[in-house]
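User: I'll paste a sequence; please echo it back and then give the predicted structure.

Assistant: Echoing your sequence first, then the prediction.
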Amino acid sequence: MTPYFSIIIPLYNKEDFIADTIKSVLNQTFTDFEIIVVNDGSTDNSLKELQSIKDHRIITIQQKNQGVSIARNNGIKNAKGDYITLLDADDEWKPNHLELFYKTIKQFPPNGALFCNAYDIKSSDNYIIKATYNIEQVDHPHIIKDYFKASLIDAIGWTSAICFNKKDFYDVGEFVPEFTSGQDLDLLIRFALRKTIVFNPTVTCCYNKTVKNSLSKKKYQEIRYTIVNSFKDEEAQNASLNKYLNLNRYALAMQCKLIGNKALYKKLISEIDLKPLNLKQKTLLRTPRFSAILMKKFYFFLLKNKLYISSFK
């Protein structure tokens, strides 16, 4: 029997998280699904942790380490369900996640759509905050008219909180294999440019930001730079996309400053339009690296004490 949902989980060295991630799926109130875990050459006990959980809906695919984009593409290729949901191996869903996707899909005839559920953000081990969207607050699923404007604070779409028809995925294009970081940003932009975006404001999952960010590595910063500059023609015709990508360039520039990636930082500074940035963002860009590092440490101190500040608000 064909499952309604195929859940794709790329797995690489997540031995401390994968069991809880899988259990959050098995606890779903909507049960017509298959779980496809693509083990991307893990070198820790991730596979052992996965195999300790027995359920006939779990399918494991083995591949040598090739990165998350190829792992997701491989999982989707082998999916039997018409609808694909993605889940990172260190994130968790609430029990109503799939049920609400199912109801939203029935409410909005697909016709080429990306379905998004709201999410919380785990900013520290003991502090979870709600994602903030640049939209009017409503309490029911609705179509997002301008995805990029709506995503100027936190993104409407996030990898572990989206659902799409398999045919639509191939229509907008697979994950780019060379993008071993930021591949979700690239895919979501392509979906937003070509498909309808349907958003459910009910929180059904949690984004775990306590896991080490790959953007601390220069090679991943270079990849993200390529991504934000891959839509030059589109942003020339779309003011909201231009502003959205400008903010992504700002965020990347700050990451470059913090790790001392001077060459890419200088390149980004020459490309960032300062006019749309708020005062906090402009000040941070001008702040010397040493001061920026101290401010980042203070930011983490505040998080530990359950105080959240953001330059995007």
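The beta strands are 5-11, 33-40, 58-63, 83-86, 92-93, 113-124, 127-130, 142-144, 162-165, 196-208. Residues 219-305 form one domain.
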